Amino acid sequence: MSRALSTESTALYDIPGPKTRQRHLMYGIASTVLLLGLLAWVVYLLFHTDQFTAAKWTPFQYKGIQELLLHGLANTLKAFAYAAVLSLALGALLAVGRLSEHRPLRWIAGLCVEFFRAMPVLVMIFFIFVALKVQPLPALVAGLTLYNGSVLAEVFRTGVNSVDRGQREAAYALGMRKTQVMTHVLVPQAVRAMLPTIISQLVVALKDTSLGYLITYEEFLHAGKLIASNLDYDLPFIPVVLVISPIYIGMCMLLSWFANWVARRQRRNPKTEAVDIGPAEAGTLLPGRQ
Predict the structure, then answer these.
(1) CB-count burial class (<10 Å; 0-12, 13-18, 19+) for 65
(2) Helices 237-267 and 63-98: angle between axes, nearest 10 degrees
(3) What is the distance between the alpha carbons of residues 249 and 149, in angstroms, rounded to a whole number?
């Protein structure tokens, strides 16, 4: 009886009855049938347009094609690694500027953040590549760094400001300088809250590396484009998409899984969980007490 009362008291909505559960089950079955029908229709179109013929899948059996794809994948990961590290560094630098007590520095940092965050990534990449005549890899990395670094700057600033104000005041009351308060008190607490969002933004940077093929950077999508435009294999565009897309999705899902794993660890952090306090016991009296 007490368990039933506890369940009703903690429910945020009315517990569904038999008819409601049956209706929800019908909705689920109808949605599943609709999705399966859509998938069957797509597969039918692929077979109807001869996308699974041996001629279009033959290229992936050759060692040269496999090496081309592996080389493109390595270049994608290299561009992502550079962009991720530089974005984190730029984001931290701009966040420090936005949190500065000096008004001109705050204005300059804020202007940079708003400008690069509002500018389309592709426009920045093309401007650096065409106008500044920079090589494809540095142009791609620079464009990704400017955009993602400005977004991460706001993530860092918001994370630091989200720490309880009492933490800051207590640190200042102990005589700590602002740099010490930031590095020893605020940032360690903010990082735990920011980490899932940071990793999610890095997923965006990974996906945006595919823009490199527009400036002839030999990344993964560029390698797929070379294969798909080959007339000798009857333009295997769809097979290339079916090969490249799962790899991109897999890399992004791996980073997303890592972000979720970090979030779960954060929720299980002993510093955020309740601590059992033992019963009071007889002990030594305080100095000066009889």
Answers:
(1) middle
(2) 40
(3) 23
* Stated pTM of the model: 0.76
At which residue do the structure tokens 């290299």 appear?
A: 78
Both structure tokens of 217: 């950077």
Alpha-carbon distance of 74 to 230, in angstroms, equals 22
Other C-beta atoms closer than 10 Å to the C-beta of 231 total 6
279 pLDDT above the threshold of 60? no
Q: Under 8 Å CB-to-CB from 136, ≥6 apart: which residues? A: 129, 212, 215, 216, 217, 218
Q: Per-residue pLDDT tens for 163-193?
A: 887 777 788 788 888 778 877 788 878 877 7
Q: Locate tokens 């305080």: which residue?
A: 286
